[in-house]
C-alpha cells in the first residue's frame, strides 16, 4: 500500500508511455501535460523504460507538489504512479512557462585550437577532439568536422527511430543508419581549389531489422525524420535523400 492506494489493483485515471526519455530530455514536460488531464486527487500512471526515472521522479514530485505513490514492475518497463495534488501551484501556467523555456533553450559549445589539425570542443560536461574540417587521408588521429556532422545526423536518426518504435510498442531487433555525402569544391578546403566547399547532397539510409509490419516500422521512421532538428535544418541548404530498408 502507498498513500492508502493498493498499486497492484489500481485503475489509474490516465496512463501514458514515456518510452526511454529521462526527466532532462522532455519527460518532465510530458508528465506535467498528462497530469493536467487527470482530475485533482486523481492518479497518473507513467510507464517508462529509462532506469534514471526511478531516482528522479520522487524528488520531482516533491518539488512541484504532487504525491509520488510508488512504482511497480511491468512487462519490459516500470510503472510509476503519481497523485495530482490540488495544492500544486499554477500547474497549467507552470507548464506553459516550462514549454516557453524549452522552446527558447540555447545549446552552447566552445572550441579551442589544441594542436596542429586538432581542436577540442567543450559542451556541458563533455569534451571531444575534432581534426581537420575535411580530410582525404585513410587514417587520422581525430575525425574531421565533416565526419562529425554526418555522424551526428546518422546517430540522431537512429536514436530518434528507436525511441519512436519504443513508444509505439514496436519490437526492433536492430537499426543501422548510414549517412554519405560529397563535398563540391572539396580541394578549396585545403587551399588549392576555387569556389565554396559545401555538400551537394547527402544520402541517408536506414537498415531496420524487425518482424513488425513494414507499414508500422515505416511510420515510426517517418515520425523520427519529421522530428529531427538536423534533418529539418540541413534540408534547407542540402538535397537530402532519405530511405528506410526493412529486413
Keywords summarizing the entry:
three-stranded antiparallel beta sheet, Translation Initiation Factor IF3, GMP Synthetase, Chain A, domain 3, elongated, 31% helix, 6 helices, 247 residues, alpha+beta, 2 domains, four-stranded mixed beta sheet, single chain
How would you describe the overall organization of this protein?
By secondary structure, the protein is α+β, with helices and mostly antiparallel strands. The protein folds into 2 domains: 7-103, Translation Initiation Factor IF3; 140-246, GMP Synthetase, Chain A, domain 3 (2-Layer Sandwich), CATH 3.30.300.20. Helices cover 31% and strands 31% of the residues. The protein contains 6 helices and 10 strands; from the N terminus they run βαβαββαβββαββααβ. A hairpin with a 4-residue loop joins strand 3 and strand 4 (78-83). The protein starts with 13 loop residues before the first strand and ends with a strand. The mean pLDDT is 88.
Helix content: 25-40%
The top-level CATH class of the largest domain is Alpha Beta
* Strands in their spatial order, largest beta sheet: 1-2-4-3
The count of DSSP E runs of length 2 or more, i.e. the number of strands, is: 10
Annotated CATH homologous superfamily of the largest domain: K homology (KH) domain
Distance between the termini: 46 Å
On the 0 to 100 scale, the average pLDDT is: 88
Number of domains: 2
- Counting DSSP H or I runs of 4 or more residues, the number of helices is 6
What fraction strand? 25-35%
Largest sheet: 4 strands, mixed
- The CATH topology of the largest domain turns out to be GMP Synthetase, Chain A, domain 3
**What shape does the CA trace take?**
elongated
The residue ranges in which pLDDT falls below 50 over 5 or more consecutive positions are none
Radius of gyration: 23 Å
Structural category: alpha+beta
Architecture per CATH nomenclature, i.e. the level-2 architecture of the largest domain: 2-Layer Sandwich
Spell out the helices and strands N to C.
Answer: EHEHEEHEEEHEEHHE
